[in-house]
Design brief:
Helices cover 52% and strands 12% of the residues. It has 14 helices and eight strands. The protein is globular.
Length: 310
């Protein structure tokens, strides 16, 4: 029997530094990061908000929407999935349901933050945080569900105290350690604005640290982050990369028409994604058809129809 994804991820966190944790927003972006060799793939709350709702990351996503995307993504890839559960969608009692739903959806890990709802992107001004005792209660609730359903499920405790109203680095570190003592597995101090502060976080936080290398946080080479002692490196905003590519493609089509399409097809020659049907999985689906469907049906429908043939 294959090792559970939760067990695999927990072992990696306990034995390695610098795990690559890109951010996806759907199955397609997740499959690409999966093929690229990610250690753990996060489902970006920002990405879901933009791709599903066309809205900014300001707490508009609901638990059913996150659970739906998590289930689809977890089923589509081999890499362990980290679900961004925002504030847990309510108080500690809501966190109980959130944790159950995400474990049952196939996530290997879950991230909960200590912002006041409605939350917002950690790299945007206007953040507020809830009282420490209330936040600790949320993590304790998540830990209890984790211990009941799957002790290997990883809980990432995110604090936005560094950049929130009335916050500071000292408060962020204090909260990170409080959340780890409550049973969380990884501390995530969001919105660190300098390398020096990151070094201090890794030094003073009493557990594995996730660093989100986006927005106001500096870009630091992976080998250097491993040397500093960062356990998980969040980097790679798929929805932003896809938005840029589609924007350029759409405007080029509008301006140049067929010439733009022909040039695009020419650029795809020799690319790993040149055969879009193969990447989508038609080859594997045909193999399953050959295994389960009548042989005569397979021969007839592939021989007497037009189009891509795996």
């Amino acid at each position: 029997m294959a090792e559970k994804k939760t067990t695999l991820l927990r072992k990696k966190i306990n034995s390695e530094k610098g795990l690559w944790n890109p951010l996806c927003y759907d199955c397609l972006s997740a499959k690409i990061f999966d093929k690229a060799g990610a250690d753990v793939i996060a489902i970006s709350g920002y990405g879901i908000s933009m791709s599903l709702l066309g809205l900014p990351d300001m707490g508009f996503i609901s638990l059913p929407e996150l659970t739906m995307v998590t289930r689809f993504v977890a089923d589509s890839i081999e890499t362990p999935v980290l679900a961004d559960a925002d504030t847990g969608f309510g108080n500690a009692l809501s966190v109980i349901r959130t944790t159950r739903e995400l474990i049952q959806a196939g996530a290997a890990a879950m991230l909960i933050e200590d912002q006041l709802a409605p939350k917002r992107c950690g790299h945007v001004a206007g953040k507020q945080i809830i009282p420490l005792k209330e936040a600790v209660g949320k993590y304790r609730a998540a830990v209890d569900v984790r211990n009941e359903l799957d002790p290997d499920f990883v809980i990432v405790a995110r604090t936005d105290a560094r950049g929130a109203l009335g916050g500071s680095l000292d408060e962020a570190i204090r909260r990170a350690n409080s959340y780890l003592k409550a049973g969380a597995d990884v501390a995530f101090v969001e919105g660190i604005p300098s390398k020096d502060e990151l070094i201090r976080v890794v030094k003073d936080v009493e557990g594995p640290v996730l660093y989100n290398m986006i927005g106001i946080s500096p870009i630091i080479p992976f080998p250097e982050l491993k040397e500093i002692g960062v356990s998980i490196i969040g980097f790679g905003m798929a929805h932003w990369a896809a938005t840029r590519a589609i924007w350029d493609y759409a405007h080029d089509l509008k301006q140049r028409g067929v010439d733009a399409q022909l040039q695009f097809l020419d650029r795809m020659k020799g690319h790993p994604l040149e055969d879009d049907h193969a990447f989508a999985g038609f080859t594997e689906m045909k193999a399953m058809e050959e295994k389960y469907l009548p042989e005569e049906e397979i021969e007839q429908k592939y021989h007497d129809t037009l189009g891509y043939k795996p």
